[in-house]
Structures are given as structure tokens and as C-alpha cells.
């Protein structure tokens, strides 16, 4: 009889350790503008009109023409307006060959790719339901550590095989909204750990402190600079007897 109870207890532990991920949600209100406080959307950031007929890697060129300077070794933030006239904050990272310095700190990138048919890849796996994206992002932030790394961010890419192809705007903006909500889920979890409060109960100073724990960053275009291949090895002469 004791062995029967012991076997049942082990089953409970095993299933508890491998509990499936569930969708998460939070309560928000209309008193505070979470995007202004947590996402740091400033009016001083340049506002551009994304060209979805070009690859995401062309965004960097588009921005450089806008500001009339090169973007090297820095995260450059800018604003866009969606179909509902809502403002969003994005980022490009410029790596120029002459200034390239290898990263020496841990960094994690959560990857999302959109194709010309409006289909999504999340971490290189097909995402059937875009409504689950915010929950997936939340779990990805906490997958390896109890608290997300400050250097973790989300990266969105798209590319085409033909010049006549274009990215559906609606697919991009839908993903963008779900990514932002995913960040809010992460901030809500950090809020409970740091202040023992839900996100909608925080004041502006407390909200601002969460942003210092995990800066908001949605990168587009990926790493623009590719490291050159190593030099060829010198040929060695074979000894003859």
C-alpha cells in the first residue's frame, strides 16, 4: 500500500514540473499611458514611414537618409505610425566594419520573422495563432532565468525573394501590438516581484524603475554587419623521406 502512495506522489511531482504554458493576461487602466512611461516613446525620436516593399535590413538605410548620418555601434530608436494612427517605438542597430567590437556580455534575442503571406515564425518555429504571441514572449523572457536579462530584446525581420513582393502591413502591426503586450506581461511580473503590486497599481516612478530593469527594445533588420571569413590557412609542406 505504501508503494502505491509513493508511486502516485512521484507522478504528481513529475507532471507538476512539466506543466504546460498557458496564456497570460493583465489588468490595465486608462489613467496612465503605459507606452509613454515603460516604452519611453519620445517626441524627439524621428518619425518614419516604413517601406514594406523592402527588406527589413533596408530600414537602417532609410533611417540614415532621414537623419543624414551613418548609424554605427549604437541602438538607434525611432517612431512609426500604424493603420490606427497609434505611435510605436522601434530600433535598428548599426554595425559598421571599421568600428566593429565583439560583444563580451550575455545577450538573448527573441526572434520573430514574417513572410510575404503574413505568416509568422517564432524562435524558428511556425506560429499558427498570433494571439498567443504575447504569452510566448513572456515565457521566453523567463525561460533561462528567474528574471530576464537586461540585454534581452525582441527582433522582428522580414525579407523577400522577388522585387515585386511586399509585406502585409496588417500582419506587421498585429505582431507589433502583441509584442508590446508581451513586454507588459513581463513588466507586470517584475512589478509583483519588486513592489508586490500589479502593474496597474504602480505610480509613474515605480513604472519607470521597471524600465531600468528591462529596457523596452524591438529591433528590426537584425545585425547588419557580417563578420568577414577567417583568412585561409597557410599550406604546409609534406616531409619526404
Helix/strand layout:
Layout: H1 2-17, H2 34-38, H3 59-67, E1 74-81, E2 87-94, E3 109-114, E4 120-122, E5 125-127, H4 133-141, E6 153-157, H5 169-195, H6 204-213, E7 218-220
Parallel strand pairs: 3-6, 6-7
Antiparallel strand pairs: 1-2, 3-4, 4-5
Helix pairs in contact: 4-5, 5-6
Description:
With 241 residues, the chain is of the alpha/beta class. It contains six helices and seven strands. The protein has helices at 2-17, 34-38, 59-67, 133-141, 169-195, 204-213; strands at residues 74-81, 87-94, 109-114, 120-122, 125-127, 153-157, 218-220. The strands form two sheets. A five-stranded mixed β-sheet has the order 5-4-3-6-7, with helices on one face. It has a two-stranded antiparallel ribbon with strand order 1-2. Helix 4 packs across helix 5 (169-195) and helix 5 (169-195) crosses helix 6.
Amino acid at each position: 500500500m505504501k508503494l502505491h502512495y509513493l508511486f502516485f506522489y512521484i507522478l504528481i511531482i513529475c507532471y507538476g514540473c512539466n506543466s504546460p504554458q498557458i496564456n497570460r493576461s493583465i489588468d490595465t487602466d486608462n489613467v496612465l499611458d503605459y507606452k509613454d512611461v515603460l516604452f519611453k516613446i519620445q517626441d524627439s525620436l524621428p518619425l518614419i514611414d516604413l517601406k514594406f516593399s523592402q527588406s527589413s535590413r533596408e530600414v537602417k538605410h532609410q533611417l540614415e537618409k532621414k537623419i543624414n548620418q551613418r548609424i554605427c555601434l549604437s541602438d538607434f530608436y525611432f517612431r512609426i505610425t500604424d493603420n490606427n494612427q497609434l505611435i510605436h517605438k522601434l530600433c535598428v542597430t548599426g554595425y559598421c566594419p571599421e568600428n566593429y567590437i565583439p560583444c563580451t556580455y550575455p545577450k538573448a534575442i527573441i526572434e520573430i520573422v514574417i513572410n510575404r503571406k503574413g505568416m509568422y515564425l517564432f524562435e524558428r518555429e511556425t506560429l499558427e495563432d498570433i494571439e498567443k504571441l504575447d504569452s510566448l514572449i513572456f515565457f521566453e523572457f523567463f525561460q533561462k532565468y528567474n528574471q530576464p536579462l537586461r540585454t534581452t530584446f525582441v527582433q522582428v525581420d522580414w525579407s523577400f525573394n522577388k522585387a515585386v513582393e511586399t509585406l502585409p502591413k496588417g500582419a506587421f502591426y498585429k505582431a507589433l501590438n502583441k509584442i508590446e503586450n508581451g513586454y507588459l506581461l513581463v513588466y507586470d511580473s517584475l512589478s509583483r516581484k519588486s513592489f508586490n503590486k500589479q502593474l496597474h497599481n504602480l505610480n509613474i516612478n515605480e513604472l519607470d524603475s521597471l524600465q531600468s530593469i528591462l529596457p523596452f527594445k524591438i529591433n528590426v533588420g537584425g545585425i547588419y554587419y557580417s563578420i568577414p571569413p577567417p583568412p585561409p590557412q597557410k599550406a604546409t609542406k609534406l616531409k619526404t623521406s
